[in-house]
């Protein structure tokens, strides 16, 4: 009997670490891991000698901008950019138009993804309308999302209608989300403090990108710390699974560590801009608003990096946030007028692989942060997130020796630019495979719109059935 596909000769990064092995795939599922050269006969054999075979990268936080803001990005361009970066699953955020606040809107959006997504996907819905939560949860969303921020001076990316910072409303949302059994993702922000801080900058006539960067990181990151303090206390009161977005201060790391030591369901993500962009003031000076998402002072960056290494924080998720150049340009004069956020879906895996090559972390740890932990936190594991028998055949094949100076011309995202242009990386995705099919091959996006499938949190029953099936294959 022959299988569909064998990846031959690679170093396969399994949950136990890297091993020399061939991987067999049939029907979109991993059916075998064998000693090199001992794989079954296959309809197609791809030689990946000298390369690393990683589980497909799971990005739990991305902005595909469709519907509503398709001049920035759309589902096809966004999921294609992800495919080019080694990502096999990407979860969209609800700040599109209309924002994802009802089951009806969610249903329409799922229909769009079914038609257009190049890789597997899901959607994080806004929890703004409490009466809609049970139905949206039943439709298989990955998580609910709250932005605690409402923009001043612009109406995107944090538009009115989904921003919530009133503590009473947050408590109600946590209680209602808890009943659905899903996690709640929160972008932490203290609007009351930000209002005061902004007014001080503006009163001094300081409005440029430097002022914006410094306002948001003001007083050693106070707006992040007070927000996370409140969120953690509300989490304790409701026992909801709280997933903190944009982890970027030492204070937040310490609070999360304490909550986890008590066994509470608190997880978090770190974004590429905290690790490789906003953590260096020289980038802010050079790129202005093109470098902002947010400015992260050095000692905060160091605490966050340590949190990733020691397991206090769980994962790297992109917060891929494409905007046009026209939307960034005003930032030189007025940082509050530029749209906040930076694209990274195509680049972040190669940035992390560069760190692996530099000895800053092991390949095993990198895979935990990119694939295994996000899949576990959002219950996509063991279907996704690891190379194991019975799992979806999702892979990122990496040439760890390939070197490149990143540049704008290669960018697949519709925005057409990357804040990482000029950066030298070592370790590049060569192929991206989703359920056994190449969506990115030899450096070219070959995936078709509509191939992507929705991946929802697994039930305990589903996990049990998968484990039984895997045991039968290996027996
Ligand atoms: Zn975001």
The CATH architecture classification of the largest domain is Alpha-Beta Barrel
Summarize the biggest pleated sheet: 9 strands, mixed
What's the overall average pLDDT, rounded? 96
Q: How many strand elements?
A: 17
**Contiguous runs where pLDDT drops below 50 for at least 5 residues:** none
Question: Looking at the structure, what is the overall shape?
Answer: globular
Number of discrete helical segments:
15
Calculate the terminal CA-CA distance, rounded to whole Å.
Answer: 17 Å
Strand content of the residues, in percent?
15-25%
**Superfamily (CATH H level) name of the largest domain:** Metal-dependent hydrolases
Evaluate the radius of gyration. 21 Å
Write down the CATH class of the largest domain: Alpha Beta
The total domain count is 2
Residue share in helix = 25-40%
**Ligands and ions found:** zinc ion
CATH topology of the largest domain: TIM Barrel
Structural class given helices, strands, pairing? alpha/beta
